[in-house]
Write a structure and sequence with these properties.
disordered N terminus; 7 helices; mainly alpha
Length: 172
């Protein structure tokens, strides 16, 4: 293959994100990021510029953020019900819970839309676990450590890696 036909990983990542999103998103990398993020108003998907980023983790980040691009309303936190909940329970608490539930919802929806992504999510989360991305070393999460986590953290971990770690939300 000639050099002019070679697609670099950032170009391939951008193309993959745009194809999944079915729109011309802006895709960028940022060395200061600790995770991927999506800015709905600007339609910008930002990826962490980690050294030795596992390909499955990169594809997982892209698919997850494209899930937000496709399924998360841009005005999610400006909706009257969310504003009312924020006023009652405090904005940080409500934002945290909505973010966790929204992550679970959009990951399910993008895996339904693109059935081949299920393996990417599984392998990507496994790679992130190996990297201690979730704040604990592989194999070190004990039952007491699990029970010490906040409810939003437990829901988030259960939804993302519960099957890999054999986690349970019952009895906690």
């Amino acid at each position: 293959m000639s050099k002019s036909n070679t697609v670099s990983l950032p170009d391939a990542s951008s193309l993959f994100a745009r194809l999944l999103a079915e729109e011309n998103l802006t895709v960028r990398t940022d060395r200061s990021l600790t995770t991927a993020c999506f800015e709905p108003a600007r339609r910008v998907l930002s990826l962490p510029a980690w050294q030795n980023l596992n390909e499955n983790a990169l594809l997982l980040f892209i698919a997850h953020e494209v899930g937000h691009a496709l399924f998360t309303p841009a005005d999610l936190f400006d909706q009257p019900r969310v504003k009312s909940l924020s006023a009652t329970y405090g904005s940080p608490v409500v934002r945290t819970m909505i973010n966790v539930v929204e992550d679970v919802r959009i990951e399910r929806q993008i895996r339904e839309k693109y059935r081949g992504l299920s393996g990417v999510f599984s392998r990507g989360y496994h790679a992130l676990l190996d990297r201690s991305f979730f704040g604990f070393a592989p194999g070190s999460l004990t039952e007491s450590g699990w029970n010490d986590k906040t409810l939003p953290d437990r829901i988030n971990l259960y939804a993302k890696v519960g099957g890999l770690l054999r986690l349970s939300l019952s009895g906690a």
